[in-house]
Amino acid sequence: MKKIKYLIIGAGPSGLTLAHSLLNRGISLSQILVLEKENVAGGLCRSEIVDGGPIDIGGGHFLDVKHKDVLEFLFRFLPQNEWIRYDRVSKINLHDQMIDHPLESNLWQFSIDTQVDYLESIAQAGCVQGADKPEAFADWCRWKFGSRVADDYMLPYNRKIWSMDPNLLGTYWLYKLPNVSFRETLQSCLQGKPYGSLPAHGVFLYPKKYGYGEVWRRMGEALGSSLKTKTTIESVDIEKRIINKTWEADYIFNSAPWESWLKWTLQIPSDIEDEIRKLYKVSIDVDYKSENLETKAHWIYEPDESIPHHRKLIRSNFVSNSRGYWTETNSARSNNTSEWRHRNEFAYPVNTINKRDSISKILDWAKSKKIIGFGRWGTWEHMNSDIAVKSALELSMNF
Q1: Do 212 and 253 belong together in one domain?
Q2: Residue 334 in domain
Q3: C-beta of residue 23 within 8 angstroms of C-beta of residue 31
Q4: What is the model's pLDDT at position 175?
Q5: How many Cα atoms occupy the beta-carbon half-sphere of 130 within 13 Å?
Q6: Paired sense of beta strands 281-289 and 325-330, if any
């Protein structure tokens, strides 16, 4: 039996960051072990070479520039001069017209009549009229943006991503959406320019010569023998924190989906098992298309429900010396393809109305066993990679 202090499940951005941050705090490399089932580190941020260029197997992943501590940390592994800085160009394909994202900030790009229709609808929205904020997502969309924006874009787009009734989603996660007031929307239309705050990745970095997975691959490589890839977890003794009857840890840090634990152990209490089964996920297919598109956009949102995919990533516009693009599609909506496809069984955690209660109970129980949930799947939080890094850096300070 190999005894270690910190055992980390999953070598995605969260697990890799936590391991290196613990090293920075003086923990010996021999006291840290990261287990990863894939043959390379990176998790959902891994990249593969397809048709002469990289594709990010988890969909579109980009490094936001807002958090300087995150940038400084990652530049240790992939220096700043190996990244290209981009001003985000993202579009929404709506009414056979490419409109800049976010929609509510760029209604001025439509015809005058269409702008008036949208503005009239927004003026009647619940938040403008002083109505109480709803708790369910679909109701919130109409309350926040008016029925026209909700029915044309927000609701069909979210039905495509989640493949469920949008009113099963809560509203607690909507801090991710840009906040644009009716006054700003009207001013935008009158002056013909966007108002309001930029959404995530308004400015982003992407590697010059590689896919986004390169920085995580290097981080994994730097861990040496403390990273064990191609390692499938077969069993967990929760009370003794023993994994695969091989490693005994003082603490286990879990960034794997909690439903995986139902296969690894029989020691989960029935009430916690019930909460785990209440958690929802979405599987996403990433499909490569070799044709070149005439657009300057980095990605394009597709709310039309007759089209299977919900987003296109125009690789040739952010990956040097490449062609083509890839799409992201909820696996339940995918058609057959003759080109390259990667299916992510665990792509997005779903923010159902009662998710916060369920994950809180799971995390409290796990913590009592010195098992710490963190990262996208350990906290069941749809966090971007920069937030995953920042959260792991903060977590390490407590151990």
Answers
A1: yes
A2: no
A3: no
A4: 66
A5: 0
A6: antiparallel
158 and 28 both lie in a single domain:
no
- pLDDT, tens only, 274-296: 999 999 999 999 999 999 999 99
| Phi, psi dihedral angles at 87 (to 5 degrees) | -85, 120
Distance CA 186, CA 193 (A): 10
Q: Counting Cβ atoms within 10 Å, is residue 177 exposed (0-12), middle (13-18) or buried (19+)?
A: middle
Q: How far apart are CA 379 and CA 358, in angstroms?
A: 10
> The domain spanning residue 237 has which CATH number?
3.40.50.720
**pLDDT-based confidence at residue 61 (cuts at 50, 70, 90):** confident
> Is 291 a domain residue?
no
Place of tokens 């070598």: 11
Residue with tokens 């023998």: 225
Instruction: Report the alpha-carbon distance of residue 190 to residue 63 in Å, rounded.
Output: 34
Q: Are residues 252 and 388 in the same domain?
A: yes
Q: State pTM to two decimals.
A: 0.94
Task: Determine contact, residues 233/19, Cβ cutoff 8 Å.
Answer: no
Q: Which domain holds residue 141?
A: 102-191
Q: How many independent structural domains does the chain possess?
A: 2
* Cβ contact 9:35 at 8 Å: yes
Q: What is the CA radius of gyration of the chain?
A: 22
CA pair distance 205, 217, nearest whole angstrom: 17
Inside any domain, residue 20: yes
Better-predicted residue by pLDDT, 175 or 337: 337
Q: What is the pLDDT of residue 174?
A: 80
* Gap between the Cα atoms of 254 and 220, Å rounded: 17
Q: Model confidence over 34-52: pLDDT tens digits?
A: 999 999 999 999 999 999 9
Q: What is the pLDDT of residues 204-247, one digit of tens each?
A: 999 999 999 999 999 999 999 999 999 999 999 999 999 999 99
- pLDDT tens, residue by residue, 86-125: 999 999 999 889 999 989 889 999 999 999 999 999 999 9
Q: Tell me, yes or no, whether 186 and 222 share the same domain.
A: no
Do residue 38 and residue 151 come from a single domain? no
Residue 286, SS3 per DSSP: strand
Q: Are residues 369 and 261 in the same domain?
A: yes
Is residue 254 located within the same domain as residue 380? Answer: yes
155 and 180, same domain (yes or no): yes
Q: How much is the mean pLDDT over the chain?
A: 94
